[in-house]
Amino acid sequence: MQYSHKFQTHFTFSEFMATAGSWQHLVDGIQQLRGPTHTPTAIRKVVRELFVASRGARDNVNKVLLVITDGKTYGDNTPLADVVAEAEGKGIVRYAIGVGEAFSDTDAKRELNTIGSWPSKDYVFQVQDFSALESIRQALQDKIFAIEGVSHSKYT
After folding, report:
1. How far apart, in Å, are the Cα atoms of 39 and each of 16, 46, 70, 116?
2. Mean pLDDT, to the nearest integer, of 133-147?
3. Strand 63-69 to strand 7-8: parallel, antiparallel, or no bridges (unpaired)?
4. How far apart are CA 145 and CA 150, in angstroms?
5. Are residues 103 and 112 in contact, defined by beta-carbon separation less than 8 angstroms?
6. To which H or E segment does residue 127 belong?
7. For a Cys staple, 103 with which of 3, 36, 98, 153, CB 3.0–4.6 Å?
8. Element (H, E) at 69
């Protein structure tokens, strides 16, 4: 799911599993949404609308949510602590990645640390720009697949 002040689901777990390993076409053509950052509402929507059996989420597997954001929440009155507690209550492991200069601010760093699971040093990343995401890809991929206990060669 992608978000700004709008929310767009690009594919579900069911659609991903139906790709039989050729998932790249699911992300081809996705263009970044622009606008105010409504991170708490986005997390709530993912927890309630994607991490559900009707969308292919399975009860018997670990669940991982990766939040990539280029700005501090703006214009969203949904309490971040509430939605993080909801995700935590469903056993969802959360990674937070802050992209850009917005996260040099103390409040913005606190927001990332709230989003990420504990301890934040293991679940929160910061990069300078979107192209720098590649620099943390392997470390993040290793951490996520370690949670699942599977080889990542099938999905890369």
Report:
1. 23, 11, 10, 12
2. 83
3. unpaired
4. 6
5. yes
6. strand 124-127
7. 98
8. strand 63-69
Nearest Cα to Cα of residue 122 among 132, 135, 112, 130 = 112
Token match 């670990």: residue?
62
Minimum mean pLDDT among 3-17, 20-34, 85-99: which range?
A: 20-34
**Consecutive H or E run containing 140:** helix 133-148
Tokens 């999905």 belong to residue = 155
Do residues 80 and 112 lie in contact, with contact meaning Cβ atoms separated by under 8 Å? no
Least confident of 24-28, 75-79, 84-88, 109-113: 24-28
Question: H-helix or E-strand containing 139?
Answer: helix 133-148
DSSP of 91-119 = TEEEEEEEESGGGGSHHHHHHHHHHSPSS
Residue type, 76: D
Establish whether the linkage from the previous residue to 119 is cis, with ω within 30° of 0: yes
3-state SS, residue 10: coil
Go through the domains of the chain in sequence order and give each one's CATH number.
2-150 (3.40.50.410)
